[in-house]
Design brief:
CATH architecture: Roll
Radius of gyration: 12 Å
Order of helices and strands: EHEHHEEE
Largest sheet: 5 strands, mixed
Structural class: alpha+beta
Distance between the termini: 41 Å
Strand content: 25-35%
Length: about 80
Amino acid sequence: MKIKIKACASVKDLCGFSEREFDLPERTTAGDAVRRVAQECGDITAGLDSLLLAVNEEYCRGDRVLAENDVLALFPPVSGG
């Protein structure tokens, strides 16, 4: 199945892209997709472990199962005061 992954803010620097299409097996979770991105970007898992995830503009956890044509957005952790 094809999905689109969007890397937002500083995640673009970690991944080396802002938007890219991936062909993944059926029943792939958002967490699995993040691990795939990490492998393709030089195994940068440490930087991706704390990401916020959203599928089709709705925040989700890593166990969310993806479907054909989903858009998975990766956001850096948010902090503030």
